[in-house]
Amino acid sequence: xxxxxATQIKIHHKGKDEDFVIFLDDLETYKKWKSDKSxxxxxxxxxxxxxxxxxxxxxxxxDDASKSTLxxxxxxxxxxxxxxxxxxxxxxxxxxxxxxxxxxxxxxxGSIVTGQVSR
Length: 119
Fold this sequence. Notes:
alpha+beta, 5-stranded antiparallel sheet, 3 helices, globular
């Protein structure tokens, strides 16, 4: 993978009052987990955090989901149970970011130091 190139994988769950997002590290292991729940979720989840986007879909501003928000939507505030429900019912959102354009190492270019005058 070249510098700056990255893939972001998230699971989006559209709820009654909020949209929920969880980030993944390994899409293939997640797909295997869907049919084999013996695979530990720690093998494919990026962080055990649940984000809400305030009805802005998978692309909105993301904030931590409060316990009351989880309770209202899922009937529980237990984050492990909620994560399982989102993983089972959510949709995969995959984004790819291209490699960085422009100079690769600015430090190797000549620089101009202010205050110096050539004579």
